[in-house]
Amino acid sequence: MIETAQLVQLLESKDAESWRRAMFDLANSVGFEHVMYAVVHSRHQQYENAFVQSNYDPAWRERYDAERFAYVDPTVGHCLISTLPIIWEPDAFASAGGRILYEEASAYGMRTGVTLPIHGPNGEVGLLSLASDTAPGEKFMRDIRRSMADLTLIRDYSFAASLPFAHPAGGEAVPRLTRRELEVLNWVMAGKSSWEISMITRCSEATVNFHLANVRQKFNVNTRQQAVVKAIALGLITPEDRHR
Hints:
Blueprint: H1 4-11, H2 16-29, E1 34-40, E2 51-54, H3 58-66, H4 74-81, E3 86-88, H5 96-107, E4 112-119, E5 125-132, H6 138-166, H7 179-189, H8 194-201, H9 205-219, H10 224-233
Antiparallel strand pairs: 1-2, 1-5, 3-4, 4-5
Protein backbone atom coordinates (compact mmCIF):
# COMPACT_ATOMS: atom_id res chain seq x y z
CA MET A 1 0.00 0.00 0.00
CA ILE A 2 1.24 3.48 -0.84
CA GLU A 3 2.40 5.60 2.09
CA THR A 4 0.93 9.09 2.47
CA ALA A 5 4.46 10.46 2.74
CA GLN A 6 5.20 9.26 -0.80
CA LEU A 7 2.22 11.17 -2.18
CA VAL A 8 3.18 14.28 -0.23
CA GLN A 9 6.70 14.05 -1.63
CA LEU A 10 5.24 13.98 -5.13
CA LEU A 11 3.12 17.08 -4.47
CA GLU A 12 6.04 18.94 -2.92
CA SER A 13 8.36 18.39 -5.88
CA LYS A 14 10.25 21.60 -6.61
CA ASP A 15 11.14 20.80 -10.21
CA ALA A 16 10.28 18.40 -13.03
CA GLU A 17 13.17 16.06 -12.27
CA SER A 18 12.22 15.53 -8.61
CA TRP A 19 8.60 15.04 -9.70
CA ARG A 20 9.68 12.41 -12.24
CA ARG A 21 11.73 10.51 -9.67
CA ALA A 22 8.89 10.56 -7.13
CA MET A 23 6.40 9.29 -9.73
CA PHE A 24 8.72 6.52 -10.92
CA ASP A 25 9.42 5.45 -7.33
CA LEU A 26 5.69 5.26 -6.59
CA ALA A 27 5.08 3.13 -9.68
CA ASN A 28 7.95 0.83 -8.76
CA SER A 29 6.60 0.43 -5.23
CA VAL A 30 3.46 -1.19 -6.65
CA GLY A 31 5.32 -3.44 -9.08
CA PHE A 32 5.71 -1.43 -12.30
CA GLU A 33 9.17 -0.57 -13.56
CA HIS A 34 8.07 1.16 -16.79
CA VAL A 35 6.13 4.43 -16.66
CA MET A 36 4.75 6.77 -19.31
CA TYR A 37 3.00 10.03 -18.43
CA ALA A 38 1.59 12.17 -21.25
CA VAL A 39 -0.80 15.14 -21.25
CA VAL A 40 -2.00 17.61 -23.88
CA HIS A 41 -3.72 20.90 -23.08
CA SER A 42 -6.77 19.98 -25.19
CA ARG A 43 -8.18 16.87 -26.87
CA HIS A 44 -7.82 18.76 -30.17
CA GLN A 45 -4.04 19.05 -29.87
CA GLN A 46 -1.76 16.71 -31.79
CA TYR A 47 0.00 13.99 -29.80
CA GLU A 48 3.36 15.40 -30.86
CA ASN A 49 2.63 18.44 -28.66
CA ALA A 50 2.11 16.39 -25.50
CA PHE A 51 4.02 16.92 -22.28
CA VAL A 52 5.65 13.48 -22.00
CA GLN A 53 7.75 11.98 -19.23
CA SER A 54 8.77 8.33 -19.15
CA ASN A 55 11.49 5.88 -18.26
CA TYR A 56 10.79 3.63 -21.25
CA ASP A 57 13.79 2.30 -23.14
CA PRO A 58 14.98 5.21 -25.34
CA ALA A 59 15.14 2.91 -28.37
CA TRP A 60 11.48 1.97 -27.88
CA ARG A 61 10.44 5.60 -27.40
CA GLU A 62 12.27 6.57 -30.56
CA ARG A 63 10.61 3.78 -32.55
CA TYR A 64 7.18 4.52 -31.04
CA ASP A 65 7.43 8.16 -32.08
CA ALA A 66 8.97 7.46 -35.50
CA GLU A 67 6.24 4.96 -36.38
CA ARG A 68 3.56 7.24 -34.90
CA PHE A 69 2.25 4.33 -32.87
CA ALA A 70 0.18 6.75 -30.76
CA TYR A 71 -2.32 6.85 -33.63
CA VAL A 72 -2.91 3.07 -33.51
CA ASP A 73 -2.29 2.51 -29.80
CA PRO A 74 -5.61 1.27 -28.35
CA THR A 75 -4.70 2.62 -24.90
CA VAL A 76 -4.41 6.15 -26.32
CA GLY A 77 -7.72 5.89 -28.17
CA HIS A 78 -9.38 4.52 -25.05
CA CYS A 79 -8.19 7.43 -22.91
CA LEU A 80 -9.73 9.98 -25.27
CA ILE A 81 -13.24 8.66 -24.68
CA SER A 82 -13.18 7.00 -21.25
CA THR A 83 -12.29 7.73 -17.64
CA LEU A 84 -11.88 4.04 -16.80
CA PRO A 85 -8.50 2.26 -16.80
CA ILE A 86 -7.61 -0.17 -19.57
CA ILE A 87 -5.62 -3.25 -18.63
CA TRP A 88 -2.92 -4.46 -20.99
CA GLU A 89 -3.61 -7.94 -22.27
CA PRO A 90 -3.08 -9.40 -25.73
CA ASP A 91 -6.84 -9.15 -26.42
CA ALA A 92 -6.75 -5.38 -25.82
CA PHE A 93 -4.42 -5.07 -28.83
CA ALA A 94 -6.57 -7.03 -31.26
CA SER A 95 -6.30 -4.71 -34.29
CA ALA A 96 -3.54 -5.25 -36.85
CA GLY A 97 -1.66 -2.13 -35.74
CA GLY A 98 -2.31 -2.96 -32.10
CA ARG A 99 -0.84 -6.47 -32.43
CA ILE A 100 2.36 -5.11 -33.96
CA LEU A 101 2.57 -2.53 -31.19
CA TYR A 102 2.06 -5.15 -28.46
CA GLU A 103 4.61 -7.56 -29.90
CA GLU A 104 7.25 -4.84 -30.14
CA ALA A 105 6.49 -3.47 -26.66
CA SER A 106 6.79 -6.99 -25.23
CA ALA A 107 10.28 -7.25 -26.71
CA TYR A 108 11.20 -4.23 -24.56
CA GLY A 109 9.93 -5.84 -21.36
CA MET A 110 6.38 -4.48 -21.38
CA ARG A 111 4.07 -7.48 -21.65
CA THR A 112 1.42 -6.39 -19.15
CA GLY A 113 0.31 -3.15 -17.59
CA VAL A 114 -2.46 -0.67 -17.11
CA THR A 115 -3.23 2.73 -18.58
CA LEU A 116 -5.26 5.24 -16.58
CA PRO A 117 -6.92 8.14 -18.46
CA ILE A 118 -6.36 11.73 -17.38
CA HIS A 119 -9.13 14.31 -17.89
CA GLY A 120 -8.25 17.60 -16.23
CA PRO A 121 -10.62 20.37 -15.13
CA ASN A 122 -9.38 22.74 -17.84
CA GLY A 123 -9.74 20.38 -20.77
CA GLU A 124 -6.43 18.53 -20.36
CA VAL A 125 -6.38 14.99 -21.73
CA GLY A 126 -3.72 12.38 -21.17
CA LEU A 127 -2.71 9.11 -19.63
CA LEU A 128 -0.53 7.38 -17.11
CA SER A 129 0.74 4.00 -18.34
CA LEU A 130 2.48 1.55 -16.03
CA ALA A 131 3.96 -1.64 -17.41
CA SER A 132 6.09 -4.62 -16.46
CA ASP A 133 7.43 -7.88 -17.86
CA THR A 134 4.96 -9.91 -15.80
CA ALA A 135 3.29 -12.66 -17.81
CA PRO A 136 -0.38 -12.10 -18.66
CA GLY A 137 -2.86 -14.34 -16.92
CA GLU A 138 -5.17 -14.72 -13.95
CA LYS A 139 -2.49 -13.91 -11.36
CA PHE A 140 -1.70 -10.63 -13.05
CA MET A 141 -5.40 -9.76 -13.21
CA ARG A 142 -5.83 -10.46 -9.48
CA ASP A 143 -2.81 -8.35 -8.62
CA ILE A 144 -3.93 -5.43 -10.79
CA ARG A 145 -7.41 -5.43 -9.25
CA ARG A 146 -5.93 -5.33 -5.75
CA SER A 147 -3.65 -2.41 -6.62
CA MET A 148 -6.13 -0.35 -8.67
CA ALA A 149 -6.94 2.05 -5.81
CA ASP A 150 -3.22 2.80 -5.36
CA LEU A 151 -2.76 3.25 -9.11
CA THR A 152 -5.61 5.74 -9.21
CA LEU A 153 -3.98 7.72 -6.41
CA ILE A 154 -0.69 7.75 -8.30
CA ARG A 155 -2.50 9.01 -11.41
CA ASP A 156 -4.39 11.77 -9.57
CA TYR A 157 -1.44 13.00 -7.52
CA SER A 158 0.91 12.84 -10.51
CA PHE A 159 -1.43 15.00 -12.56
CA ALA A 160 -1.92 17.58 -9.80
CA ALA A 161 1.81 17.75 -9.12
CA SER A 162 2.70 18.00 -12.83
CA LEU A 163 0.73 21.17 -13.57
CA PRO A 164 3.59 23.62 -12.86
CA PHE A 165 5.79 21.65 -15.30
CA ALA A 166 3.22 20.66 -17.94
CA HIS A 167 1.88 24.26 -17.96
CA PRO A 168 4.99 26.33 -17.25
CA ALA A 169 4.48 29.89 -16.05
CA GLY A 170 4.72 32.34 -18.91
CA GLY A 171 3.82 29.74 -21.50
CA GLU A 172 1.03 30.56 -23.89
CA ALA A 173 -2.32 29.23 -22.73
CA VAL A 174 -4.25 27.18 -25.25
CA PRO A 175 -7.77 28.59 -25.72
CA ARG A 176 -10.63 26.14 -25.42
CA LEU A 177 -12.68 26.10 -28.62
CA THR A 178 -16.09 24.52 -28.90
CA ARG A 179 -16.67 21.75 -31.41
CA ARG A 180 -18.62 24.15 -33.65
CA GLU A 181 -15.86 26.78 -33.45
CA LEU A 182 -13.30 24.19 -34.51
CA GLU A 183 -15.54 23.03 -37.36
CA VAL A 184 -16.00 26.58 -38.65
CA LEU A 185 -12.28 27.30 -38.31
CA ASN A 186 -11.44 24.18 -40.32
CA TRP A 187 -13.68 25.38 -43.15
CA VAL A 188 -12.00 28.80 -43.04
CA MET A 189 -8.67 26.99 -43.35
CA ALA A 190 -10.09 25.23 -46.43
CA GLY A 191 -10.78 28.64 -48.00
CA LYS A 192 -14.55 28.76 -47.51
CA SER A 193 -16.46 32.01 -47.05
CA SER A 194 -18.97 32.56 -44.25
CA TRP A 195 -21.83 31.99 -46.71
CA GLU A 196 -20.30 28.72 -47.95
CA ILE A 197 -19.72 27.55 -44.38
CA SER A 198 -23.32 28.37 -43.52
CA MET A 199 -24.49 26.15 -46.39
CA ILE A 200 -22.18 23.30 -45.34
CA THR A 201 -23.05 23.44 -41.65
CA ARG A 202 -26.74 24.26 -42.23
CA CYS A 203 -26.75 27.29 -39.99
CA SER A 204 -27.13 30.97 -40.72
CA GLU A 205 -24.29 33.13 -41.99
CA ALA A 206 -24.76 35.31 -38.90
CA THR A 207 -24.17 32.26 -36.71
CA VAL A 208 -20.97 31.42 -38.59
CA ASN A 209 -19.73 34.98 -38.10
CA PHE A 210 -20.68 34.79 -34.43
CA HIS A 211 -18.51 31.69 -33.97
CA LEU A 212 -15.63 33.29 -35.85
CA ALA A 213 -15.88 36.43 -33.72
CA ASN A 214 -15.62 34.24 -30.61
CA VAL A 215 -12.56 32.51 -32.04
CA ARG A 216 -10.85 35.81 -32.86
CA GLN A 217 -11.53 37.04 -29.33
CA LYS A 218 -10.15 33.87 -27.75
CA PHE A 219 -7.00 34.11 -29.87
CA ASN A 220 -6.76 37.90 -29.49
CA VAL A 221 -6.41 38.41 -33.25
CA ASN A 222 -8.13 40.68 -35.76
CA THR A 223 -8.79 38.40 -38.73
CA ARG A 224 -9.99 34.88 -39.32
CA GLN A 225 -6.79 34.09 -41.24
CA GLN A 226 -4.73 35.07 -38.20
CA ALA A 227 -6.93 32.79 -36.10
CA VAL A 228 -6.24 29.88 -38.47
CA VAL A 229 -2.49 30.48 -38.31
CA LYS A 230 -2.56 30.61 -34.52
CA ALA A 231 -4.74 27.49 -34.23
CA ILE A 232 -2.29 25.56 -36.43
CA ALA A 233 0.67 26.80 -34.38
CA LEU A 234 -1.03 25.63 -31.16
CA GLY A 235 -1.85 22.23 -32.64
CA LEU A 236 -5.63 22.69 -32.46
CA ILE A 237 -6.06 22.10 -36.19
CA THR A 238 -3.74 20.83 -38.90
CA PRO A 239 -3.63 21.46 -42.67
CA GLU A 240 -4.39 17.74 -43.20
CA ASP A 241 -7.83 18.35 -41.66
CA ARG A 242 -8.90 19.97 -44.93
CA HIS A 243 -8.91 16.59 -46.63
CA ARG A 244 -10.91 14.68 -44.03
